[in-house]
Amino acid sequence: MQSYESLKEAFDNLKTKEDFCISGSCESESSESLIDYPSYTDALYAIMMAPISSGVYISRWDLKEIAQSAGESMAIHPRKRMFELLMKYASDKETMQLVLDAFTAHIEEKIAIYEELASQFPASKEIFENYASKANKIIGKFPSILKEYF
Amino acid sequence: MGLNFDASSCVRTSAIASNCQKCVDICPAQTIKLTSNLPSFTPIECIECGGCAGVCPTSSFMLSEFNVTDFSFEYFTDPQVLSCKQNIPCLAVFNPEELISLTLGSDKELVLDVGHCETCEIKEKLYPLIKANIEEANFILSSFSFKQIKCENIKLESPQAKNEESDRRNFLGSFKPINAIKHKVEFDEIVNKDELKSFELDDAMVSKIKNKKIPDKRKLFFALLKQEEKPKRYETIDSNDISFSSQKYIDQNCNNCQICYRICPTGALSSNNNFSEIHFDAMLCVKCHLCHDVCTQNAIHMQPSFEIKEFFEPTGRVLADFVVKRCDECGNSFTYLGGDTVCPRCSTEEDEAIMLHQTARNNLK
Question: Which of A17, A32, A75 sits opposite B274 (nearest CB)?
Fold first, then answer.
């Protein structure tokens, strides 16, 4: 029997289930990673899904429609999860091409809305032009994304 | 002293299917009853023996002025004979796990004074439990230690109550605001003592239920075992000889409904990231039987034996593994048991949709 202090310390340190493991003997978690999509997804998510860089807001319903256009049926999840699932689906060059085409069509629709608003409300033209220019830039990046990652 | 009940820890709060009523069965005053599926009691009827606290697997019942874990730490520094007339409410307040901890935590032999048990007014229910607990603790101890619990008919008596002579200063001091509040609380407690104390689920309780909680008795037990020397050979005992832990297995009837590990109060049952496996850690199991009570498939079973090795080298065992696939319809993951890659929810919805269309078509005709 060791000292009272060491026992008290050991007792106080037992807070979670993991603390009951001795040298990792309880680690029966499967080695399968939660990340079932490629790492470039994070990079694409940052440039495509943030309106500050892409100029358009792509909602969850937009993502569902994009997935549908690319041939995938998708449930509504948080945006990031839906984007990850979409990238998981686009595992080869052909499918990725379909996904990017769907994105292009979708972003072009949004640009058309910006142009219409800019023409009807000329005072706001400056704002919408900025958004449309960012959106066009994103579409321009798609061929290089395809080339770089596939 | 009073009795406290933490409803969020009670297994009956987690699942209506729970059959646990150990507290009801053991209460010698018969004040603990089930009201709306949860234990309830009338404080004035409670004799504060702590029997309910001793049998509760999740430590939902506690005496307000006697905490077994705190007492155990005090005992380790100053080991004394445990007697209901001197330092504990009743020997029934300790379960076998706690008796083992008390034995392991001190270099001195644990001596229990059972001299008053034979003549005790509440012996009918509690004395057989005390004897069984001591027997179980000694049996388990013998599988890895030379230490044993000793029962003696010492018949210690209560120390003479000191006559506190109240003086003028004490009397006037009782009128201070802080004392007035104290008196008010005491007064309310006394007034409400004859009212039935029942419990209902509220939002705060629901959020507490979700937290897996490992009882202090198990933490102390584990901390003490870590300091013990490992036996050269691990023994295997009959599962009926241990009341506070178990080993389990799952048969082919399991459909991975996930309920057992979601409601396990201590997290002994758990799953992996994608819910394709069911894991079990015997060191965390408190044998509350809740997983068995809620299993609609009767797929989870107690292993007939228990390996003492689990105390010294806890392992997380995979009891069952399943194929998890994404549903073709909704895209959500589900346990695939063969056939179409459609989750049970979508498949039910499709059946319902077909039925609705058929009904509508028939009505049009």
Answer: A32
